[in-house]
Amino acid sequence: MAASQLLCSFPGPLQKFISAFLAPPSESVTPGGTVTLSCSLSTGAITSSNYPFWFQQKPGSAPQLLIYSTNTRPSSITTRFSGSISSDDAALTITGVQAEDEADYYCANLNGKVLFSGCRVGVPLRGRPRLS
């Protein structure tokens, strides 16, 4: 099964720094599947010197650090989450997607200033899974 790719954006004042696209808009994430979220800068490539970070935030909870320095996980984070740099973008891959992975995901990059981008992954318990 091919992995879906979601490129995230942060609407508002930082939009000029971060470009984003949802491709394809109707793609769904099925439990057990794989999804890749990508974060790109409109002002240039993301490299390891940007120290990409990824966070997960569930409703009513503080953001939780998933990945830092491109691909390093805190010891409490499952290996289902992995970070990389691909085609000048920072990427977060979630394998074996589970209902508990439904959350907002944010990337942060150091590019002279800290820039954030976010997107939501939906994994409904019933019915057709979705990305939004």
Automatic annotation (TrEMBL):
Residues 13-107 form the Ig-like domain. InterPro entries: Ig-like_dom (IPR007110), Ig-like_dom_sf (IPR036179), Ig-like_fold (IPR013783), Ig_sub (IPR003599), Ig_V-set (IPR013106), IgV_Light_Chain (IPR050150). Signal peptide: none annotated. SMART domains: IG, IGv. It holds the Pfam family V-set. This is Ig-like domain-containing protein. It comes from Gopherus agassizii (Agassiz's desert tortoise).
